[in-house]
Amino acid sequence: MHIPRHWNPLLRRTAFLLLVLALLAGSGCEKDDICVDGDTPLLVVTFYDIENPGEAKAVNRLRAVGLGNGTPVTSFPDRSTRDSIGIPLRIDSGQTGFVLIQNSEDEEGADVGNRDTLYFDYEIREEFVSRACGFVGQFDNLEVLLQSDASNWIDSVTVIATTVENSLSAHVSVYH
């Protein structure tokens, strides 16, 4: 770029500085400035038949509600019949609780169905993915607790993977 000599020195310096800044800003881009794999993984929960533990068993009209926020999770279709789900763990706390509701229905504005509460305890580990993605949460030393009540539809829960680094395989098995 040619800067005319008749411009005053302050204007010439400003134009030169803007040119240098534009070149530096353009050279900072990298191929990975678009984040494609920078999501914190979901906890994958699979449901099995208590009488035949090797056989998957779907839960009818399942709803998962996060404790503390009162709204259903959006990581799977609400009130759907499923034999596995992916649910988000909190990255600002070492514990996440969910109410899992079997046969969930809306009756006059009230959510009815059989409710069981699961608490997941874990250690949070931040993993750097890239400049575009930044850090994602990963979870270690996963433990689960089923809160017992008079009418649990969940019989037992087993942690099958204590580390949650991806959403590709199951981490927890629920038997009902």
What does this protein structure show overall?
The chain is mainly β and 176 residues long. It has two domains: 1-31; 43-175. The chain is built from one helix and nine strands. A five-stranded antiparallel sheet has the order 3-2-5-6-7, with no helix packed on it. It has a four-stranded mixed sheet with strand order 4-1-9-8, with no helix packed on it. The longest helix is centred in the N-terminal third of the chain and has 19 residues, at 9-27.
Helical coverage, percent range: 10-25%
Main sheet properties = 5 strands, antiparallel
Q: What is the number of beta strands?
A: 9
Continuous helix count: 1
Domain count: the total is 2
Q: What is the H/E string?
A: HEEEEEEEEE
Mean pLDDT: 88
The chain-level structural class is mainly beta
Rg to the nearest angstrom? Answer: 25 Å
Span of the ends, CA to CA = 73 Å
Query: Which stretches are low in confidence, meaning pLDDT under 50 for 5 or more residues running?
Result: none
Lateral arrangement of strands in the main beta sheet: 3-2-5-6-7
Please tell me what the overall shape is: elongated
Approximate strand percentage: 35-45%
List its salient traits.
about 180 residues; mainly beta; 5-stranded antiparallel β-sheet; about 45% strand
